[in-house]
Design a protein that fits this description.
This protein is mostly helical. The protein has three helices and no strands. It starts with a helix and ends in a 5-residue tail after the last helix. Keywords: Membrane, Transmembrane, Transmembrane helix.
């Protein structure tokens, strides 16, 4: 197994751990669904899955995670916009 393959596998396993941790913390009430931490964990996890899936040729999984990351980024953007003070 090459060094690149090992790195890609580590990225995939780290992504899985991050997404699982995000879900567990959300389920335990430790994170808010529209909170920055939960959404960034999803974006980071999806990014890792994109790298791993793309490298391994799992295009449907990579495509799903592109959408997953985009949803997280969109949610981060809407939460950020809502938290800004209103302009008069």
């Amino acid at each position: 197994m090459s060094a690149v393959t090992i790195i890609i596998e580590v990225i995939g396993w780290a992504a899985a751990a991050i997404i699982l941790a995000a879900y567990v913390l959300l389920s335990l009430g430790k994170l808010e669904a529209r909170g920055y931490a939960y959404q960034w964990m999803n974006v980071a996890g999806a990014g890792g899955f994109i790298v791993n899936s793309g490298y391994n040729g799992a295009i449907p999984s990579a495509a799903l995670n592109i959408v997953w990351a985009a949803m997280g980024l969109f949610t981060l953007w809407t939460v950020w916009r809502a938290s800004r003070p209103a302009r008069s």
